[in-house]
Every structure is written in C-alpha cells, then in structure tokens.
Write a structure and sequence with these properties.
This protein has helices at about 5-10, 10-30, 35-50, 70-90, 90-100, 105-125, 130-145, 155-185, 190-200, 205-225, 235-240, 240-250, 250-265, 270-295, 300-320, 325-350, 370, 375-385, 395-405, 410-435, 450-465, 470-485; strands at about 60-65, 70. The protein is mainly alpha-helical. Strands 1-2 form a two-stranded antiparallel sheet. The radius of gyration is 21 Å and the shape is globular.
Length: about 475
C-alpha cells in the first residue's frame, strides 16, 4: 500500500481533520474571544479542501484497498457540502450575538469542520465500515450542534431527540450491515455487488441479502429524513439554532443522498428490482406527506422542515430510475436545492423584532413587501423556485428527475409525483401571498451583518432565478460525469 498516494487521494479529509484539530487547540487557548478568527479560519480550511479536489482527490480512483473512492461523484457532492458548511459558519455569529444568553463559541466552527470530514467520508465510502465511520463522525458533531444553545429548552430538546432517534437509526443500519456481510462475506461495495449478481438464484442467500438491503436503506432513510423515518425533522429543525437548521437542511442532506445513491448503484446495483420498490415508496410518501403536513404550519422553520422532506422525495425519484441519467438528475437537483434552501434560511435569519430577537412565525412576514421589499422579493424567488414554478431554476431541478424517471419507464411514479407537487405549491404560494397581500406586521430590524448576509441572499437569488439556466450546460456535464463514475 502506497500511503503517500492514498493520503493524496483523501487530501480533503486530511486537510479538514488536521485543520479541525489545530483550530480546536487554538480555541482552547484563545477562549470565546477567538471565535471570529476561528470561524474565518474554518472557512479557509473548507476552501483549501475544495481546492484539493482539483488534484487526484477529485478523480484519482480508489484508495486504502478500495475502502475510499476519490472520483467525480464524490467531488461533486463535496463541493456542495463545503459550500453549505461555509455559509452555515458565516451566518452564525450575527444570530448568536443577537440571541440573549448564548454567545457563539469557537467550538461551533470546529464541529462544523468535523461534520464536514464525516460527510466527505460518507460520499467517498467504498466499504460498509467506511460508510459507518463517516456517518457517525457527521452525526456525533450534529448532535452537539443541535443542542448548542444550552440555555434554550427547545435546543436541548432538539439535540436529545436527534441523538435518541439517530442512535436507533444507527442500530438499524448496523443490523443491515451485519446481514449483508453475513450473506455476502464482504463489506466492500464491489464485492457486495458481485455477491448480489452471483447468488440471485440461491433463494436462501437472496432472501437474506434482501433483508440486509431493507435494513441498510431504512438506516439511510433516517439520515435523509425520508418518510417513514422523518419524525425527528420538524422538531429538530424548529428547536436547533437557525444557522444549524440551515446546515442540517443542506450539507448533511447532500451527503446522505450521495451515500444512498452510491450504496444503491455501486453496492446493490444488481438488486435494482428490490431496492427500487423501497425508493419509490419513500419518494412518493415523502412528496405527499411533506406537502400535506406543511399546510397547517405556522412556524417558518417547521414549514421548511416539511419542505426538505418534500424535496428529498423529488430527489429520490431520480434515484428510482437507477440509470446514469437518474443519478445525474439527483445531483443536479441537490445542487439547486442547496442554493434554494440556504437562501431561504438566510432570509429567516433576517426575521427579528425590535429587540433583535429571532421571530419565526409566518404571520410576522405579513406585508414584508412594503417594509422590506428587497428581502420579500428574494423570499418570493426562493418560494417560487422551491415550488418548481417556471421560469425559476427550481423547475429545471424537478424536470431533470422526472425526465429520468420517464426515460426509465416509471410513468406512474412521474405522474403521481408531478400531481403531488401541485399540493406543495400551495404553502409556498401562501408565504408569497402573506408577504405581498396581507396588512403589514411590525417591520424586521436590520442587523450589523446585513451587508454580508444580504450579499449571500442576492447571490442565492440570482442562482435560482432564470439566470441560473445559463449554468445548465456546465452543471449538466458535471453531474453526468459524476453519475458515470458510479457506472
């Protein structure tokens, strides 16, 4: 084994891991006063990890005897993960500074780096054990981040719920891993694929491997908050600090979807008929429940939680196709979804009363088109895009996954998914109606960090506006190259 070559292939994780350890030591010595410096240093570390993807780490092949894949698929997912993590770090100082009794501490960006390291391992996993190590590294940091506001009861409750249900999901996943290993004799994805192809005619082994497949996908469904393993999402999104909620809705979502795609295609490709049924059910259930359950919500963060469940369902439509076009559609969808979600949560961060405290009720958006017209316009763009209404770029995201499903012959799935998407459009349009047609509520106050966050909001709004269609040739080619790496 050439350790130097392996380290170069896994250079992004090496940079993130070493950076997190160094900044952790710096935080211990510097205390709370080092928070801002550690935050910007963490963003620089994420940028360095992204730059590392331009070398062998982005297309170099296998490392550590097949345990780790440095390919175009992983590189695509890591770019989205690093961008979302950096934005979640940048948006945090202003929020915690305004929230009484809880100042931001330098552990926050360090935990973000450790979580990003775990997510990198997830999307590059070539083995069930690598998968689990990356998943738990990401999850352990996420449990702490969810309860980061120690004096806030909702935050503590969110962290506890996330931990308990996350531990249950990890147990389910480990049980599935043990079944797969027991019936295939290997934990390497390619070895598992060979076993599924060879032993398909053996009824005993085939049944055992299918049971293992079901439990593995159940564990992964929790991580992507797909129905019926979505129950933690609304409570955790509402209770966690808003920058953490924005992080949960973006970066870990990309990592978990990427991991699910890699496991389905690379490890269990020969069992397409078995796992496709699971994915179709999860997709339709997530689309319908995410749309219906959001209708009665009065808290904007809970509504966006159900929106994320709804969007996961659309992404799974592309995976159900089981083709390179379907995987490319999934990655395109996640790229656009990250821009829409981060933009929406950046607007939510601007919702604060005269005392500077966060406001989360949808009613507080009333008449925002007259009190904060630019902010209302940006929020309207994000809502229309999430609803998939043309000519916003969110329409193209849905078009990509439904087109792949139709090409794969999954006409009922596409038809039901398109019909259910109209339900979700209702609550997105309700927010636009509240902002533009209701009587004005007390205006939101502007914060000191308005210029930076305003620039990020404008950037996200431009990305999901009709101008985003200019990126289709590059985005389509990149996502197809990522998909081809799995086939």
């Amino acid at each position: 084994m050439d350790y130097a070559a392996n380290l170069m292939l896994s250079l992004p994780e090496v940079i993130l891991g070493i950076g997190a350890v160094i900044l952790m030591m710096f935080s211990a010595w510097g205390g709370p006063g080092a928070t801002r410096a550690v935050s910007w240093a963490s963003v620089a570390v994420l940028f360095g990890a992204g730059v590392a993807l331009t070398g062998p780490a982005g297309h170099g092949g296998d490392a550590y005897l097949g345990l780790y894949h440095a390919d175009a698929f992983a590189a695509f997912a890591k770019v989205l993960i690093y961008i979302a993590t950096a934005v979640a770090i940048i948006m945090a100082p202003g929020f915690f500074q305004r929230t009484a009794g809880d100042n931001l501490r330098p552990e926050y960006p360090v935990l973000m780096l450790l979580s990003a390291t775990g997510m990198g391992l997830m999307v590059s996993a070539g083995d069930l054990l690598t998968l689990y190590v990356g998943l738990e590294l990401q999850s352990l940091a996420a449990y702490v981040l969810a309860s980061f506001m120690r004096r806030d009861q909702r935050s503590a409750e969110a962290g506890l719920k996330y931990f308990v249900l996350g531990a249950l999901a990890s147990g389910i996943l480990l049980y599935g891993v043990s079944l797969v290993y027991g019936f295939t004799g290997t934990t390497l994805f390619r070895g598992i694929a060979d076993a599924y192809a060879i032993d398909a005619a053996n009824p005993v082994k085939s049944l055992g491997m299918v049971f293992g497949l079901v439990f593995v996908f159940a564990g992964l469904a929790f991580k992507i908050s797909a129905v019926p393993f979505h129950m933690w999402t609304p409570d955790v999104y509402e209770g966690a600090p808003t920058p953490v909620t924005a992080f949960f809705a973006s970066a870990p979502k990309v990592a978990a979807i990427g991991l699910a795609v890699r496991v389905a295609v690379e490890a269990m490709g020969p069992a397409l008929g078995e796992w496709r049924q699971i994915v179709i059910f999860a997709a339709l259930a997530s689309i319908i429940l995410g749309a219906v359950a959001a209708i009665g919500q009065t808290n904007i963060k809970r509504l966006l939680a159900y929106s994320s469940i709804n969007n996961v369902g659309f992404a799974l439509v592309g995976l159900a196709a089981g083709t390179p076009e379907g995987v490319a559609g999934v990655m395109t969808y996640m790229a656009i979804y990250v821009a829409m979600t981060l933009g929406s949560f950046l607007v939510v961060l601007q919702m604060r009363d005269a005392d500077g405290q966060p406001v989360e009720s949808i009613a507080s958006l009333s008449g925002m088109s007259r009190t904060r017209p630019a902010l209302a316009a940006a929020m309207a763009i994000f809502m229309f895009s999430l609803a998939g209404i043309p000519p916003l770029f969110g329409f193209y995201a849905k078009f990509a996954v439904f087109s792949a499903a139709v090409q794969a012959g999954l006409f009922p799935l596409a038809a039901i998914g398109i019909a259910a998407s109209t339900i979700g459009a209702y609550y997105y349009l309700r927010i636009v109606k509240t902002m533009y047609f209701d009587d004005p509520a007390p205006a939101f106050v502007k914060g000191e960090e308005g210029a930076l966050q305003g620039g990020l909001i404008a950037l996200a709004a431009v990305a999901v506006s009709p101008l985003g269609y200019l990126a289709i040739p590059a985005l389509g080619a990149w996502s197809m190259a990522a998909a081809q790496a799995l086939f």
